[in-house]
Amino acid sequence: MPANADPTLQSLSDVATLALEEAQRQGSSQCEVDASVSQGLSVSVRLGEVDTVEYQRDRGLGVTVYFGQRKGTASTADLTAGAVRDTVSKACAIARYTAADPYAGLVEPDALAREIPDLDLDHPWPLTPEAAIELARECEGEGLAVDARLNNSEGSAVSSQRHTGIYGNSLGFLAGYSSTSHSVSCTLIAQAGDDMQRDYWWSVARDAADLESAAAIGRMAGARALARLGARRLRTRRAPVVYSPDMARGLFRHFIGAISGPSQYRKSSFLLNAAGEQLFPTFISMQERPHIPRGLASSPFDQEGAATHDRELVREGVLQGYVLGSYSARRLGLKTTGNAGGIHNLLVTATQGALEHTALLQRLGTGLLVTELMGQGVNGVTGDYSRGASGFWIENGAMAYPVHEITIAGNLKSMYRDIAALGDDIDTRGSIRTGSVLIAEMTIAGE
To answer: Are 307 and 113 in contact (CB under 8 A)?
Structure first.
């Protein structure tokens, strides 16, 4: 660690080094440790009154040791030297009694990150509880002031979190960094007669300066709730469907789950052995970009210390490979892709050009715009998909009326093939960045 290193990072480095030395002293052939400290402030306000104020501070150490290919894991929230040694002892005791796993072990040395780029992820927010409460009140108040029909609220929340973590292993790797995440959200209720509808909006960023203003978030939550008043049910039919960007992210999250190592080696995926197959239309490509400055899923290395790197996951609709850590890679006879712990900034792009929102609705013609999904009706083995939904019925490319209490259904494999267009309204509030997605046809179940 350099002389000017973050003192928290230096302290965690000392803890990790002690654990690695102790594991070697106790006879382990390999060892890896993960030490972290996280702290944060969260407040929520409802109808101007403080609902909750929470200050959180957590610390932890996870130790995994290997005796040959027998593995033992133990963890503790006590980072004192005695507790660290005891934790290593417990991990070693467990390893001595477990069965050997031929695929167990540390990541291959040539996959380890050699350089640790600064991705500008650490932006502490000197936010007092009083200031957070006022920000939440402003957010909610601005939303309620949009219209007299906004007369109730599920509240507004402000959160600021900072996490410092370090990973080390017996291959000589030891590195860590700090990262922050700040958010503001608001959920409002609109009422007209007996009709009550709720909706929400939120903003999240590494740097509080990149958040949408509290006032804008509140007003957007209010406008969205108002737009849902007068929602109707639909008769059952088949029609084209547009997913708004925040809903479309879930479609691709199911895709990543299906091509992840555990789903593949357990043979529990509807995309089993799909590498090299045409899964999407030729105009769809997907790139992983782990080093986007301030990206919400950016990381210089994965949970095993493997270097993260730019990668084309889908090229012209064809799957180029899987999402793997070292264990699942060995099970499949492949090499890690630096994805232990998940995907790092997946960009869904349209090579033929994404459509502006109005143009996308014109392309939809008459069909459904989905803005909210409910339920967990997705089968990862078969790809069968059925979710409760609400949104807006579109006629001739224009909003006709809001709809609710409907179900949309299909099969993810055919839904991916039937993507007809992407929108240019990219949502960056997560690990998957995508615009709206138009699917040529789905079953819509209602009355």
So the answer is: yes
Global confidence as pTM: 0.94
- The angle at the Cα of 386, spanning 381 to 387, to the nearest 5 degrees, equals 125
Is residue 383 predicted with pLDDT exceeding 50? yes
- Residue 161 CB-density burial (10 A; 0-12 exposed, 13-18 middle, 19+ buried): middle
> Looking at residue 2, what is its pLDDT?
46
C-alpha dist (Å) from residue 44 to 143, 154, 172, 186, 336: 15, 10, 44, 9, 41
Is residue 376 pLDDT above 90, yes or no? no
For residue 118, is it left (φ>0), alpha (ψ between -120 and 50) or beta? Answer: beta
CA 248 distance to own-chain centroid = 13
Residue-wise pLDDT for 52-62, tens only, equals: 999 999 999 99
Nearest 5 degrees, angle CA 74-CA 77-CA 83?
A: 70
Q: 111: domain range?
A: 7-227
Each residue's pLDDT tens digit, 3-52:
456 899 999 999 999 999 999 999 999 999 999 999 999 999 999 999 99
Q: Which residues of 104-122 are buried (b: 16+ CB within 10 A; e: fewer)?
A: bbbbeeebbbeeeeebebb
| Same domain flag for 48 and 127 | yes
How far apart (Å, rounded) are the C-alpha atoms in residues 16 and 32?
Answer: 9
Token readout for 99 is 């069965």
295: Cβ contacts below 8 Å, ≥ 6 apart: 119, 206, 289, 344, 345, 428
CATH classification at residue 56: 3.30.2290.10
The per-residue pLDDT for range 194-240, each reduced to its tens digit, is 999 999 999 999 999 999 999 999 999 999 999 999 999 999 999 99
The answer to whether 161 touches 39, Cβ cutoff 8 Å, is yes
| Same domain membership, residue 242 and residue 204 | no
